[in-house]
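Methods — Computational structure assignment.
A single polypeptide chain was analysed. Its primary sequence is given first, followed by the predicted tertiary structure written as structure tokens.
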Amino acid sequence: MSDTALPSVLFVCVHNAGRSQMAAAFLTHLAGDRVQVRSAGSAPADTVNPSVVAAMAEAGIDVSAEVPKVLTVDAVQASDVVITMGCGDTCPVFPGKRYLDWQLTDPAGQGVEAVRPIRDEIEQRIRGLIDEIAPAGQS
């Protein structure tokens, strides 16, 4: 990565309707224009999980307009860090990329009460990631 390029992060889960959407939204919200953010799923759902939309709204982040996206080779190649969340072997692996696997409960089929702790854990992990790849004051 060059000095002028922004770090880029891709969040991947199976349906791109819950965990990866929350992670991408938190990273965008907390890091602003210091990081390029992408999310995708190996088998995307039609819509973002409504309980995820509600839990994120409680945190002051609107993801209601987000649409699950299909994982592409291009998205992986364009990212410096690829964070997988339960997609197993369906995530392509390329040399030179940094991979992290975050073991998080899948919010699919869960009510907002069950999604809140997942949301909060994702936010904590995102704050740690920002400190590592795009500390405040760095441009």
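Note: The chain is about 35% helix and 15% strand.
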